[in-house]
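Morning!

This is the sequence you dropped in the shared folder:
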Amino acid sequence: MELGMNRVADANGFAVCYPQGEKDRKGIPHWNARFKISKVDDIGFLSALAVHLQTEHKLDPDKTFTCGISNGGFMSYTLVAEKPDVFKAAASIIGTMSGYTWKHRDQIKPVSILQLSGLDDKIIPYDGSMSPKGGWGGAPNQDVIMDFWKSLNQTKTEDIVKISDKTTAHYYKDGVNGNQVWHYKIKRFGHRFPHKGNGTGISSAEEIWRFFGAVSRKSEERKVPKTD
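The structure's back. Tokens below.
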């Protein structure tokens, strides 16, 4: 499911990779974000894949990011939590943190995060009431999760922008190493991919790129030598 990323990538000159997850014990394709439903080493697989693509296509390791929808959002959090040397920022679309990743949050290093949340999501409830069965649930209310990332990244500024009647964006910036935490809250919206055709007023693909583009610019700024 391409969801518009190819179009945005072509327009802005970045590479996109769409890996395929293995099947879990019930035969359903998944990403194993430290769940109990399989023993697949997706952390190792995706990290090795990223490094291979960097070498094969001369991609910048400082601009290698991860994003995903639903289960892919879980996986993206887990990747930046455990492999920040490979993945420099993460975007989670209607996903959240797995119980394991949240439980071990004291080991996570600062990294920029984008979260898009449907406030009426019944599959991955915003209030953190997802069943812990299989290792999925265990993380709290999404506001608590975002407070964790804001604190971890030591963000200093906050901008709140009402994008549409449904969507409000919260931008937390000026954190350690220029890190940022972006959180989009979408009212009257469930477990669906947000795009302009379903009344959210945003294109998730474009917002993902806008976020990663901002992180990339901060990376470039850090590389510029300071002069007196």
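Headline: The helical segments are 5-12, 42-57, 71-82, 99-103, 142-153, 204-223.

More detail when I'm at my desk.
O.
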